[in-house]
Hints:
By secondary structure, the chain is of the alpha+beta class.
Amino acid sequence: MVPLEAGAGPENPPCPACGEPLFGWIDARPGLAGPVSRCESCGLGAVGAAGRAEEALEALDRMRNGATIRIASRASFSAWIGGAGWAGLEPASRYLFTPESVRRLVANRDQVVAGTRWSPGRGIATMWQTVLNGFTFGRNLALARLGHAESVHAEPPWQRRLDTLITLVVAIPALIAAIPLELTAAATSRGSTISLDLELL
Ligand SMILES: [Zn+2]
């Protein structure tokens, strides 16, 4: 195995959360601001340029509700099986957080993560949409229809029409598959959606 330090360089900018080099994860594609890189240490994903800690903290704070932040976790089982089809990867995504990367980032402003909880409803929904994305040309079509995600539609009209049909046909079987998958993931601390409570030191 190559030491992480060996990858540092212009092609592998430092992770905004922990400083380790970032490596390529997903190539640029429609519906994303750029290629996605990931940190193999804290798990943070960055869409486009890596940016700095302040920028990642700003993105994190946009997801904040009081002292609680709910993230689609890039360390989740759904992100692992989904890859580019992971439902947590949305057109407006700039950073893809993990509980560990949040811990590292908020430490910059003397905050700690006092507790983490799996969010069952959102977690199952994310797993369900990730499974559905494996069948459709577009992405996040069902969750977007329900008002819970941003979708990326296929360009050709015939693909869009087919996507609507596929989503209808596969929705229930995909849900039946997603529930045990997400429950198993949560049992091994790899749930799709995690709420983190922040506290000042
Ligand atoms: Zn990192």
